[in-house]
């Protein structure tokens, strides 16, 4: 007779390193101050994954194959561009789909594969001659937070990471890739019309 089988040993639990402390929240602008800053914005910087898209990456054996953009974001970008606001995309990843979408929307400044988004922004801002106070950005994650902290008006999408939420002046009600950029554009357009 064979002896009874023993259950497999319980998996060992790995101890995780303690999480890095969250960045302290950015001081919030009051509604009136926010509207004054919003009315003077001349450059809006956008992240891609998690802002212009829902953040999911669609891969096959050849690599990334698909990005999905929301048409309402495009309408908001075009409307704000007609008011003289310049746009830039600064993304940590590279994608031909981003180049194509930017071209369709008339976004001339597309910086991809960027690890230091704030540094890239500073160089672009200086080249364009736009002061920090007249720049805004929309971000969703930790790599966006340093950039968000140095612009005049920072937006985080509704489903952003805590670091981006802490760096934001405004949090959209829409999630990334679901019209959040349109919300930011609408707020900037409304401030310009007051």
Summarize the structure.
The chain is an alpha/beta fold. Helices cover 35% and strands 15% of the residues.
Look up the CATH topology of the domain at 42-160 and 169-178. Answer: Rossmann fold
CATH level 1 name of the domain at 42-160 and 169-178: Alpha Beta
* First and last CA, distance: 88 Å
* Overall geometry: globular
| Helicity range | 25-40%
Oligomer: single chain
Helix/strand-derived category reads alpha/beta
List the helices and strands and how they pair.
Elements: H1 31-39, E1 43-46, E2 58-60, E3 63-66, H2 71-82, E4 86-90, H3 96-105, E5 109-111, H4 117-128, E6 135-139, H5 145-148, E7 153-156, H6 162-167, E8 170-171, H7 180-193
Parallel strand pairs: 1-4, 1-6, 4-5, 6-7, 7-8
Antiparallel strand pairs: 2-3
Please give a structural write-up.
With 194 residues, the chain is an alpha/beta fold. The chain has a domain at 42-160 and 169-178: Rossmann fold. Helix content is 35%, strand content 15%. It contains 7 helices and 8 strands. The protein has helices at 31-39, 71-82, 96-105, 117-128, 145-148, 162-167, 180-193, and strands at 43-46, 58-60, 63-66, 86-90, 109-111, 135-139, 153-156, 170-171. The strands form 2 sheets. It has a 6-stranded parallel sheet, sandwiched between helices. Strand 7, helix 6 and strand 8 form a beta-alpha-beta unit. Helix 1 (31-39) packs across helix 7. The mean pLDDT is 89.
Keywords:
alpha/beta; single chain; 194 residues; two-stranded antiparallel ribbon; Rossmann fold; 6-stranded parallel beta sheet; 15% strand; 7 helices; 8 strands
């Amino acid at each position: 007779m064979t002896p009874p089988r023993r259950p497999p040993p319980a998996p060992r639990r790995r101890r995780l390193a303690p999480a890095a402390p969250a960045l302290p929240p950015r001081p919030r602008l009051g509604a009136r101050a926010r509207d004054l800053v919003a009315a003077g914005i001349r450059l809006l910087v956008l992240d891609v994954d998690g802002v212009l898209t829902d953040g999911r990456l669609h891969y096959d054996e050849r690599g990334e194959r698909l990005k999905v953009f929301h048409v309402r974001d495009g309408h908001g970008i075009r409307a704000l561009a007609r008011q003289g606001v310049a746009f830039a995309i600064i993304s940590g990843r590279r994608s031909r789909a981003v180049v194509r979408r930017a071209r369709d929307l008339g976004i001339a400044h597309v910086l991809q594969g960027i690890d230091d988004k704030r540094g890239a922004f500073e160089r672009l801002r200086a080249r364009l001659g736009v002061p920090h106070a007249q720049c805004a950005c929309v971000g969703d994650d930790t790599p966006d937070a340093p950039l968000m902290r140095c612009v005049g008006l920072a937006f985080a999408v509704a489903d952003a990471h805590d670091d981006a939420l802490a760096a934001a002046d405004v949090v959209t009600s829409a999630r990334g890739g679901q019209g959040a950029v349109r919300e930011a554009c609408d707020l900037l357009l409304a401030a310009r019309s007051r």
